[in-house]
């Protein structure tokens, strides 16, 4: 990789700014001051420093699982709330993308990567990667209402503004106000809209898993890299 590109990727500097610090003699490669922006560096084996601090860039794609807490937006630009990438300590945050966004008040499993094709495989309904949601309802549902909801969700329901019914899903009630919903698609606000179909409202929502990936061992706000085996299963 060209040295100026390496510097830009490893820092928040533009290519133009990278060339300025090179010309100023602030960068070393393997302990030698280098001013040539076109010098090729090995991102794995060469040691690059700026003002004495070592720099690095990711070798290949990153695949990250984040346990999203409340109050964070699944966006790449700051809006009204902090963004989820602020919780991840890796370089080149701008190249990361999110698979299956969660609302600000929703918690749970979030997959983040810079591999666009892989992200598409995670989110595309045709690949049938089930997502399990745990939800709390505003209004209690008695046994008859629960049975009816379970049946209709299993057959597919027509949400307001849609032209096709939802794909068959699995709804399981834990008690009158708590349920678990397993989906293989991800329409806009789907879980909340599905409960709205039955005249109810979701007050708390948590995504417990995506495909085979669970949050075991991760507290809210924590993240980890997926193993190669986990990545391959998508």
Characteristic terms for this protein:
234 residues, alpha+beta, Alpha-Beta Plaits, 3 domains, nine-stranded mixed beta sheet, four-stranded antiparallel beta sheet, 6 helices, 22% helix, 16S rRNA pseudouridine(516) synthase activity, isomerase, RNA binding, RNA-binding, PsdUridine_synth_cat_dom_sf
CATH class of the largest domain: Alpha Beta
Globally, the shape reads: elongated
Helix/strand-derived class?
Answer: alpha+beta
Total beta-strand segments: 13
Number of domains: 3
CATH fold assignment of the largest domain: Alpha-Beta Plaits
Determine the mean pLDDT: 90
Percentage beta strand: 15-25%
Count of DSSP H/I helices = 6
Let me know the largest β-sheet.
9 strands, mixed
Order of helices and strands: HHEEEEEEEHEHEEHEEEH
Percent of residues in helical segments? 10-25%
Low-confidence stretches: none
CATH architecture of the largest domain: 2-Layer Sandwich
Could you give me the name of the CATH homologous superfamily of the largest domain?
Pseudouridine synthase I, catalytic domain, N-terminal subdomain
């Amino acid at each position: 990789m060209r040295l100026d590109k390496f510097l830009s990727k490893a820092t928040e500097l533009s290519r133009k700014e990278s060339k300025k610090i090179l010309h100023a003699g602030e960068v070393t490669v393997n302990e030698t001051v280098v001013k040539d922006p076109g010098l090729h560096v090995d991102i794995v084996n060469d040691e690059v420093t700026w003002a004495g601090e070592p720099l690095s860039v990711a070798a290949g794609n990153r695949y990250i699982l984040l346990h999203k807490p409340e109050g964070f937006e699944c966006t790449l630009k700051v809006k009204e709330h902090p963004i989820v990438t602020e919780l991840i300590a890796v370089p080149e945050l701008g190249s990361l993308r999110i698979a299956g966004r969660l609302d600000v008040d929703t918690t749970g499993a979030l997959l983040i990567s810079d591999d666009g094709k892989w992200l598409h495989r995670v989110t595309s309904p045709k690949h049938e990667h089930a997502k399990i949601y745990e939800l709390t309802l505003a209004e209690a549902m008695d046994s008859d209402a629960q049975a009816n909801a379970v049946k209709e969700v299993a057959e597919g329901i027509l949400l307001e503004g849609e032209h096709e019914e939802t794909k068959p899903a699995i709804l399981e009630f834990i008690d009158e106000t708590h349920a678990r919903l397993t989906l293989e698609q991800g329409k806009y606000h789907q879980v909340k809209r599905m409960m709205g179909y039955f005249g109810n409202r979701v007050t708390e929502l948590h995504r417990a898993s995506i495909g085979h990936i669970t949050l075991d061992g991760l507290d809210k706000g924590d993240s980890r890299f997926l193993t190669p085996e986990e990545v391959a299963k998508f």
